[in-house]
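Hello again, I could really use a second opinion on something today. I owe you a coffee for this, so here goes:
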Amino acid sequence: MSVVSNKPDKSHWYFISILGGLFITAKHLIKNLLNKDKMMTLNYPEQKFEYSPRFKGNHVLTVKKDGAIRCTACMLCATNCPAECIKIIAAEHNDPTVEKFPIAYEIDILRCVFCGFCEEACPVDAIRMGPEWQTPGLSGSAFTYDINHLAYRPQLKGGVVSVVDEVERHKSGI
């Protein structure tokens, strides 16, 4: 013989929890509508968030004082990259004081994790993580940056000059 109980089951009390959640949501909605000045929202195209100087955004290849790329194609940045998004092709330089230089330097920004290991590994201050973070594009191929984009894009206004002095670098053996 089975016993049928008419007591309400506690598993059906979810309706009270739903009403509690809706009440909290409505409370926050009304609070935000009445206090627009205290909201943490930015009106993005007109207002932009100011990041700290330590922010690591898009990559920048630095240049020497004469405008040539600082990179010596040592491959340390590509070796340290955990995402393996940096590809460098090196060539011999005509100048006997310069051992080699990159003829191709590409970074696939869609694979990059923006960790900054490439910046830390570079012994000659050739690559930096800049303050830019807006990278619009229509296709995936627009996010593979080459030497021209990394060193000479218009936002850089002629390139970022490295802080490492060439004479001091040669004296220290770098």
Observations:
- The chain is about 25% helix and 15% strand.
- The longest strand covers residues 100-108.
